[in-house]
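Backbones bend. To wit:
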Amino acid sequence: MLVTEQSERTRRNSGGLGLAGARSEEFALLPLPAAPALLSTEEGIIVRATEQAAKLAGETTPAALIGCRLADLVIRNGPVSLLRARSGQHPVRPLSWPHAEDERLRVTVLVDISDLADAEHDAAEAADGDERRWLIEAQRIAKVGSWVYYPETGELYRSPVLTEFLGGSGPQEAAGVLAMIESTHPDDVERARQFYLDVLNAPEDELLEVELRDRAGQRVYLCTGRAEYNRAGRCERVQGTVQDVTEHRALERQLRDERRKLQDAQRIARLGTWEWDLGANVMRLSNMLHEIIGKPSSSPITFESYLDRVHPDDRGWVRRAWRPLVEDHDPIEVEHRYLRLDGTTRILRLHGTAIKDADGGDVLVGTAQDVTEQRAVVTRMERSSQRFTDLVSITPVGIGLFDRAERLVDANDALCDLLGYQLDQLRGMSAKDITHPDEQNTNLPTPAEHSGIRRRVPQRVLVRSDGEPVYCELRTSASVQDDGTHFWLVVFQDITERRRAAEALRYQATHDDLTGLPNRTAVKDLLHQLLGRADSHRVAVLFCDIDNFKRVNDSLGHDAGDELLVALARRLEGGLPAGCTAARLSGDEFVIICSDIEAVGGVDSLANRVSGLLRTAVPVHGQLIRVSASIGAAVPDGSAAGGEDLLRFADAAMFEAKGRGAGKVSLASPALMASADRQLHLEGQLREALNNDGLALHYQPVVDVDGVVVTAEALVRWPHPDRGMLAPDAFLPVAEQGDLLRELDRWVLRTALREAATWPVREGRPVGVAVNLAGLVPGGPDFVDAVADIVAETGIAWDRVILELVETALVDLPSRTRHEMGELVSRGVRFAVDDFGTGYSSLARLKDLPAQIIKVDRRFVAGVGGDASDFAVARAVVDMARAMGRQCVAEGVETATQFHVLSGVGVDAYQGWLFSGAIPAREFRDLVASGPMPIPGA
C-alpha cells in the first residue's frame, strides 16, 4: 500500500512514465539478473522490475513498481537501507551499476539482509539511541546540520538539525537533492546547483565549501561537501554539513564596518599609527601613515630612516624629544616638520607610549597626524589677529573694550584722542564716567547674547576731559576672548561734524537761502503744530506781497531786488511782537504766523503793525526806494480747515487787498473763503483737464507783407464742462497759484507741435508755430531736455519752432541759461521777445536779448497812425532790429492804416484782427490751405 501510494504520487508529479512509458517494450528486452532487481533512469525513475523485486516489495506484479522513484522506494537509515514494502520497511543492501547495454540506465539489485539487520539492531539500538541524541544536541548547539547523499540510489539523508534549518519535520521526511537546492534563496540557486555538481566531480577527500542563504534571505549557511569513492572508483556516498553562520557573518560585517570607519576617520583626520620593535629596530606603519609620509608600504622603516626625513632644523631636538620614550618608556608628544620624498614639507604631530606585547616584551606604539593645514590655519589666525590689533590701533575711529561691569579695559589711540585722556587714565572708567551729564541713558547698549550680533545707538553725547561735549554714534558687539572671558567691543564714531552738517541741511531745508527766514516747509510744520492744539482758534496767518516789486527787479536788476527783500526781512524779524513768526514763501511774498492773536491785540492790530513795518524807504544801490505791501489775513473759521487752507485764504485776501490799491489790508471773509474754495476746485478741474487732454488750442495767423501765413501763435482755451469756453485770463491765475504753469506749458508745446506737424505746406514754405512760455522757461530744470523730447516726439522740424518769452524773462540771464538757449538755437529753434517795449528797460538792451524775433507791443502799434511818439518808438524798434539782424513782428494790427504805416517802416510780419483772430485748429488748417490772405487797401 505504501509503495503504491508513493508510486501514484511519483506518477502524478512526473506527468506519467514519460520516456519510460514510451520505451516500455524496449526496456522489457533488456536483461536483468534473476534476483530482486530494478532498472531506473538517470532521474531515478523505475522503468522495469523483476518478479523477485515485486515479491520483496509485497506487490503482486512488477508493474506496481514501474514509475516509482528509486529514492522513495529505498531509503537510508543510518548504515542500513530500507525497502518501503507493503508490509513495512524491509532491510536491504542495494548494489547498483550501469546497464551493460545502456549506460544511461542503472541496475539496482536489492539483497535481503533482514536476518542480519534484526540481530544487529537489537544489540546496538540502545547504545545508538543515546549517542544519536547527544550528536543531534551537539549539532543543535553548534548550529550545524549534516547530510549524506547516495548517488547510486539518489537517496538523501538530512539530520534533524538540517531538517529544522530547511523547515522540515524530521529526518524521516527525506527530500531529493534538487528539493534541497530549491530551498535556497532564488539568487543562490544556481550557485547551489554548481556546488552539488562540483562535489560529485571532486577528488576523494577534497572538502568543498559554499555560502548560501535561505529562501527568505534572512539566514546565511556555510555548506560543505566531500565525496567518497569505492574500490571501483565510483562515487559511493557524498556527505557534508550545513552550519548557520548568520551571526558570525553579521559580526564580521560589523567588524569590517568598524575597521572601515576607523580607516575613514584616520584618513579624514590625516592620522596614522606606528609600532616600533626595539629589539629588531623595525618600525611598522599603518597604510595611512605611509601615505602621509609619502613612502610606499613596501619600504622598510627604521628610527634612523625616519630621522633622516625630519627637517634639518628640527632633527636635533626631535632626537632628544624621543629619548624619554626610548630610555624611560615615558609618553611623548612631538610636533616637527617632515620632508617627503616628493619634496613637499608637512608638519607631523606624534604621540608615543610603551606597552607590553603578548610575550611580555616592550613595544613602542603611537600615532602620527598630519597637521599642516591646521598649523596654516592657526598661523593665518595669528596673523589675522595681529592685523586686527594693528588695524584697531591705527584706525581713526575710537574703539574700546569693556568688561561686563561696563568698565573700560583697553582702548585705541583714536578713542584716547576723542575723549582727551591718556590710556592709563581711561582704563577703569565706566561708561557712565565718559557720558555727558545731560545724557539720560548712560549705559552701553545691550548686545545680543550670541557673539557677533551688533547693536547701534545713533547718537550718544560723551564728555571730553575738558568738559566739552562730543556727539558719537555707538556700535557694540558681544565677543569672547581666547580665555573665554566675555567682553563688549564698542566703536565710537565721532558724528559732531556730521551732526552740525545735518543741522545745517535741516536749516537749509526749512529756511530761505536769501533772507534766512523760515520757508514754506517750516510754515507748514508750524501751522500743523499750532492747529493741533486746543487753542487753535487763536492762530492767525498774514499773507504779505510787496507792491510793485517787479518794477524794482526790472529797473534796477535782481541784485537790487534781493537786497530789498533782505532789508524787509530784517525789519519783520525786529519789529514783530512775541509769538509771531515771519517767513518767506517765494519771490516777494512774506507770511506772518501768530500763535495767539488775542495776545497781540487782534488781527487788525497785527495787520496794521506789519503794514507799518513794510511801508518804508529802503536804501538800495545808492537809491532810496519807498515800498509798501498788500496784506491779507485769515483765522480759523471753526471748520476743519488746515494750514494749507489758512494760507490759501490769506493769499486770496491779499489779492483782494491788492485790487483795492497798494498798501491795503484785507481780512478773509466767509465769502472770500468760499471764493478761494471755488478757485481750489477750479484748480483741481484744471489739473484733471491737463491730465486728460481737456484743453484746446486756437491759432492766430502771422502774415507777411503779401498776406502769406508764415507762422501762427498757439493760444490755449479751456472748454469747461460748466462754464463754457474759458479764455486764458480766466484760468492762468489759477494755474499760477496752483504751480501748474510748467505743466500747462508742456501740454501746449506738445499739442501745438503735434498739430503743426500736420499742417499743409504751400509752395514749399511750411508754416512755423509760436508758443508762449511762462512756466517752462530757460534756466528752469531740464528746459533743454523737455523741449528736445517734445520736438523728437512730435517729429516737427526744428526751424518751425518759435518759443515766445516776455521781455523781463530775458533780462540779466545767467551765462548757463544763455548757453541753453544757444544750444536750441543751433538746432533751429527761434526765440521771440513778446510785448517788447513794456518792460522797464532801455532800447539799448535790445542788443543783449538772445532772441531772433522782436514783437512790438500792441500799445505802440495802436497809435502809430496818429501819435507821433508811438510812431517814433515803433520806427526805432524796427530800425534797431533790422540793424541787428532780427526779424520784427507787429502785434495787435487792427486797421489798414496801421498795416500800411508799419509796412512803410519795414516791419516783417503782422498779427491782429485785421487778418484773423484766434481760430480753432481745423479752421486754421483750412485757412493755410486756401492760400495768401487779402491785403487791405490804403
Notes: The first strand starts at residue 37 and ends at 40. Confidence is low (pLDDT under 50) at residues 1-22, 169-174. Residues 412 and 717 are 73 Å apart (CA to CA).
